[in-house]
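Posting for a labmate who doesn't have an account.
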Amino acid sequence: MSLDRRDPEGAIAGAAKAYSNWGRWGEDDVLGTLNFLDEAKRREGMALGRRGVSFSLSQRFDMNGPQKGWRRRTNPIHTMLMTGTDAALGNQGSPHGIGGADDLITMPLQCSTQWDGLGHVFDHGKAWNGRDAQKVVTADGDLVTGIEHMAAHVAGRGVLLDVGRVIGVGGGTSRSSGAGSRGELPDGFAITEEHLTATAEAHGVIVGRGDIVLVRTGQLARVRREGWGEYAGGDAPGLSFTTAGWLHASEIAAIATDTWGFEVRPNEFEGAFQPLHQVVIPNMGLLVGEMWDLDALAADCADDGVYEFWLTAAPLPITGAVGSPVNPIAVK
């Protein structure tokens, strides 16, 4: 796909039409590309946990996160409702010396490691499967494609594409000095289909129908070393708009990255905001994950040369939510 950087409207409209999955699984569908992740694919994924080594792919949920209030997103606020102090002072009113602690958390559902639900993004007033956005997501939440519908489905074969480790700063396979030598891509680096294909070939994996694909850019490793900066909403490496065709043709079930926004930032069009989201979520029905911590998994994959694994990443079944925190677990 070639890009006319002056015409985001035309590019989005063309890609939305070319890569639409509207009606593919019936007019009542609420799962989108998760339909590709069937029982056979799940059995294939289960067989990959050979060593029994597990990795949490989640960032921490605490006040030390990257959020600064942009788009009304804050870091999680953790509050204790009952404490050991209350128990020791006898303030809990419980019999025979029993005491306990309770707590609550207040946070936007997409402030740390999370999934974007199918009701998260619209295209010209249309939600997933061609529904009217105003009838899908209201003040009562996502009445049709709430993320609770996906809770039982996100488990299968995971594939890591460590683009940061394989692709050099110049877009080749060099591991010379610079960000590429640390397994990191610079902000603004657009990952193309060619980069994804070259990375899969370097890892010896084939990406296909029903896979949950994880793309590591290395940005999270960099901001942990240098400070959060503009990680939440600023410039970042990420998928190029031109990968829309690959995302559609590969028939993957879901994709997640270690960045805030999944696609390259600044976006590739003048005056645009998240154009790839506008194509893949409401039109393609693709499940998109962001802010995943892929570093420990990537190090292990590099050590043993195995880039496929059993992956479970169920969203919380929050009724009517358009996104959800998640603690993905990869097992090798």
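Reply:
Got it, the structure tokens are right above this. The chain is about 25% helix and 20% strand.
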